[in-house]
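User: structure tokens for this one?
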Amino acid sequence: MPKKSIAVLISGSGTNLQALINGVNNKIINGEIKIVISNKEEAYGLERAEKEGIKNIYLDDKKEKDDKDLLNLFKNENIDLIVLAGYLKILSKDLVSTYRNKLINIHPSLIPSFCGKNYYGLKVHQEVVKYGVKISGATTHFVNEETDEGPIILQKSIEVNYEDTAESLQKKVLKIEHEILVKTVMLFCEDRIKVTGRKVKILR
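Assistant:
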């Protein structure tokens, strides 16, 4: 099976990106990360890509509101899959439509809980702790035109302890983010994900 060409979009330190790089290097993922793009110039994830010899680009999202530059980059690199790995920007409807069911996001909660507008980063875990739920986790999903509302691919849960803070919970969830994101990309690259409406089936 030919390797899939992958683009990863980041805004920060890129730990999920590193998990994907490790997955590719360890031949868990039958794909190649062709390009890493950040909307934050200081994002450490760009350095992670540079160290691996992966093409990396900073795109100022204040100048490019319609994602034309992103679309051109994806087409030039013949990208099969786009992964949002902590990318803190809403993508244009045109881009989402062009890459329908080829655009994956990782979210640090069990969607549909603690997701949607303004739920990102530490804010998610602050709200989880504040609400007092006993279980949280992470979700991978396809991206559609609404924030965090696309078809769910994989989810994994963890217990929220009474003593947990937003910071301690974030660390626990990050570990399972890495796990299910790598597995999701692996499944995509093996053509084992089938989408029917809102439902996703993992093929054997």
